[in-house]
Structures are given as structure tokens and as C-alpha cells.
Design a protein that fits this description.
The protein is of the alpha/beta class. Helix content is 53%, strand content 14%. The protein contains 14 helices and 9 strands. The chain is globular and about 60 Å long.
Length: 346
């Protein structure tokens, strides 16, 4: 059992360290799809759940910060009513078998929307090829949550024309630029180990300023999948208008069960800086274990990649400390199978 856990941890750590290279590979695959973006006035939707939805969420962060295009995220099987024949719908499913995404593919087709698929294969790829729908292919045989670099890169490649300047040069530079930072994050006494040690057996609450909200959500889902533990995510400034009332009222007994992890960008806005400071002061005043998790580089893309990597490494360290094999996810498989069976009967 211990050997199996060590092998799984080693495989997933290697994939985390290879995140910049997988981003570049996915980006190149996405750029090969010609004329993908819609005409002016068309709305763009990305459909995905789980790790595929996380990749779309991260791509949306890039677009919001740097592009003149709004990406609407759909985490389900039906598109909003506003998705009409002028819409451009990107369907992201690493496995190509996700029931919700396949139903959304059909929904988009019925509406006459333009479609594009990002996947490693499966039924979704087969149907897209049959329908003449463009496909961005990413490598198969990875745990879907470890394919986030390929999926994010593929999306950024497809959406690259929406940016004022192409991201090709900066994506190409990420492997060399980020390699030393990734090694530092995962070092035996590095940030990932420090954050995991601070969390210990407690329920982690990951909080980030709004631009990094998808990173906080990614951290929570990685802890849930890799360490097989519950986790929670939240954003600033939203948390200042509700969650702080709860943090300010926790009892000493409750405080011992939680850990507040504040994900901090290199140069936070004044609002984010004060929000993080207030949460830190509040947590410590209530004797809640509180730790900051700084992301050491500037730039939206660099922050996203390092932020994802740090959270992944934290989750793997928690798995190691809990003697948990991070790879098997039988409960997710059972849930997906049950939902897929129910959808077939509708």
C-alpha cells in the first residue's frame, strides 16, 4: 500500500512540475484551429465540469484581465437561454465521456450555435468529427485533474485572437521561466509543505481576491480529490460582506477544526490587501489557524500557473501526510455513472 501511494504521489508531482510544458503543448494545439472565434456581437460560452470546468474558469480569468472578450462558464448540461445561433460554444471534457458536456453539445447543436470541442477523445470527439466540429486534441491517459495545463493551454490557443497581442511568446517562455519557482514550491521545506503543515487535520478554507477566485476553487477541489478531504473556497471582497460574520463568531472549539488559507498575489490591489489583512487579523483573534500562501510572480498567466501548481502540491502533501493514495477516485466514478444513467432515461 505504501509503495502504491508513493508511486501515485511521484507521478502526480511530476505532472505538476510539467505544468508549463503541458500548457505550451495545449496552446499550440489550440492555435492550429483556424477561425474559431465568433463574429462581433457573438457570445462565447465554455461548458465543463470538474477539472475541465476548472480549466475554463482559469481561462476566463485571463480573458477578464487582458482581453476584450467575455467568456461565460456553464457547469452543467444545459446552456442559458441567451445562447442562440450567434453563440460560440466551447465544450471541454478531458475524457470525452462526461454526460453533462455531451448533453450540452447536443443543446448547442439544436440552437444552431457554432461549437468547438477540447478533449482527449471519447464519444465527444467521435461525434464532433462526424459533425464537422473542430476538435482540439490533448494527450490521453492522464488523470483529468492533472490535465489542466493541456486544457487551459488549448483554450488559450483557441481564444488567442481575442487578446491585444498573441500570448505565444509568453506561453513559450513559461517552462524555463517557471521551472526554478516550481522546484522551490515543492521543496522539502518549501511553501507547499509549510501550508500543508499549517492545515494539518483541519478543514481548509481557501480565500483569494476575486481575480484569483478560480485558483481558490481549484485548491479546494484538489484537496477533495487528491487528499480525499472536504475543503472550502471563498473570494474577496465577497467574503467581507458575509463570511466574516461567521469567522467573527466561531467558538474556540470550532476554531480548532478550521484553517484559513489566504492566497496572496504578488501585488494585490489596495482593496485585496486590506481584505486579506482583515481576514488574517480576524482569524488570529478567534484563534483560527491562519496562514498566508503568497504566489511569487507577477503577470496573470504566471500567477495562474504558479497558483495552480502550489495548490496541487499542497493537496499532494496532505495526501502524503494522511497516507492516502491520491489517484483512485471511485466515488466520483460511481456518481458519474449514476448521473449518466439517469440522463439516458430522460
Amino acid at each position: 500500500m505504501a509503495r502504491a501511494i508513493d508511486a501515485s504521489l511521484a507521478r502526480l508531482r511530476a505532472l505538476v512540475l510539467g505544468l508549463p510544458a503541458s500548457l505550451l503543448e495545449g496552446f499550440r494545439a489550440g492555435r492550429e484551429v483556424d477561425g474559431a472565434l465568433p463574429a462581433a456581437g457573438g457570445r462565447v460560452f465554455a461548458v465543463g465540469v470538474g477539472a475541465s470546468g476548472s480549466a475554463a474558469d482559469l481561462a476566463r480569468t485571463m480573458l477578464e484581465a487582458e482581453a476584450n472578450l467575455s467568456l461565460e462558464l456553464v457547469r452543467g448540461d444545459e446552456l442559458p437561454r441567451s445562447a442562440d445561433a450567434r453563440a460560440f460554444v466551447v465544450l471541454v471534457s478531458y475524457s470525452g465521456t462526461t454526460a453533462e458536456t455531451r448533453r450540452a453539445y447536443d443543446d448547442a447543436g439544436r440552437r444552431g450555435a457554432r461549437r468547438l470541442v477540447v478533449t482527449s477523445g471519447g464519444e465527444l470527439a467521435e461525434r464532433a468529427y462526424d459533425d464537422g466540429v473542430p476538435v482540439v486534441r490533448v494527450p490521453p491517459d492522464l488523470p483529468p485533474r492533472a490535465a489542466v495545463g493541456h486544457l487551459l493551454g488549448g483554450l488559450l490557443g483557441v481564444l488567442d485572437p481575442a487578446f491585444p497581442e498573441s500570448n505565444e511568446d509568453r506561453v513559450r517562455a513559461t517552462p524555463e521561466l517557471l521551472a526554478p519557482h516550481l522546484r522551490e514550491l515543492g521543496a522539502p521545506r518549501g511553501p507547499a509543505v509549510s501550508v500543508a503543515r499549517a492545515i494539518g487535520p483541519r478543514l481548509p478554507w481557501f480565500v483569494a481576491p476575486r481575480p484569483l477566485g478560480p485558483i481558490a476553487r481549484r485548491w479546494a477541489t484538489q484537496v477533495e480529490e487528491n487528499a480525499k478531504r472536504l475543503a472550502v473556497s471563498d473570494e474577496l471582497p465577497e467574503a467581507l460582506h458575509n463570511a466574516v460574520a461567521g469567522w467573527g463568531a466561531v467558538t474556540a472549539r470550532e476554531a480548532a477544526r478550521h484553517c484559513l488559507v489566504l492566497i496572496e498575489p504578488r501585488r494585490p490591489s489596495p482593496l485585496a490587501r486590506e481584505g486579506l489583512r482583515f481576514l488574517e487579523q480576524l482569524g488570529r483573534a478567534r484563534r483560527v489557524q491562519t496562514v498566508r500562501a503568497p504566489i511569487p510572480l507577477e503577470g496573470t498567466l504566471e500567477t495562474i500557473v504558479l497558483g495552480v501548481a502550489l495548490g496541487d502540491l499542497v493537496s499532494l502533501e496532505l495526501a502524503r501526510r494522511g497516507h492516502v493514495d491520491p489517484e483512485p477516485i471511485p466515488t466520483i466514478a460511481r456518481g458519474r455513472a449514476q448521473v449518466a444513467a439517469a440522463l439516458r432515461t430522460r
